[in-house]
Amino acid sequence: MTVASKLSLCLFSALALSATVSHAAGFQRLDLPMDQNGPALQGAVWTPCAEPSAEIKVGAVSIAGTRDCKIPDGRYPLIVMSHGSGGAYLSHHDTAAALADAGFVVAAISHVGDNARDRSRQGYLSIFSTRPREMRRLIDYMTGAWPEKSRVDAERIGFFGFSRGGYTGLVLAGAAPDFRAGLAVCQDQPALPMCRDIAAGKVPTQPYPRDTRIKAAVIADPLNAFPGDALKQVAIPIQLWASEKGGDGVSPASVDAVRQALGATPDYRVAAGAGHFAFLAPCAAGQAESQPAICGDEPGFDRSALHRDMNARVVEYFKAQLP
Description:
ten-stranded mixed β-sheet; Rossmann fold
């Protein structure tokens, strides 16, 4: 497979991969209490489940799963998920369900101040340091305080992140961001508080420690804040996805720059015809009407087909990297 290979929407391979899994995902809400490390966090957990799947309504979103399903005996790899700016813990619910179907425990949270319901800190530089800390807290909780922690194999932890969630995953994998070089989004939105701070030289210099518990990551259209050799310290296996069209401060060139700068060559995939938001779960009818900016795709582009292929490949990758 060449590094610059285009995404082939191959339904046959997706079906072949899914033929060995249970086609059911347990779903339960997740509430992390406030502690000395930060405020309360809300999210959800998807788990392997032997019961039939049904439709679950969570606000305007419809997901497939079984509420509070009893987890079959065993210890399962853990995947933690980080959404993009203004997203939520449900942003990638179809990918989470596909992973749970395949034998993973998946946990996702809504990042405080940078989610669909609370955008109070969305344009501030502080988000870039609190996001990694919140994901560390999520791993701490899932392996230490979650009532079903005995079902989690703490030696097999993976990360899935999109956009600023992709940035978050790269930081946790060892990359050191440097905002002094600026961000592409500031070219279009210079009035954002973080862009004003960057222009004024008010850039935080606190360390961004890696989380060595994460053994592999899938990163989609990451926000690139890593100039020079900042990505050379990332040594874990990475599957890197790029949209062909880009958007929201992320361009195909900026993602390709991440590919070239990583310390280890990633499994690189370009989603042909996709815009940046195509990596979000396909939208329900109500969402498409109320959120056309993130639900709309280029004419002729099939988001559902992308996700059938992508989810199968994400499952395959994590199975190979977290055996």
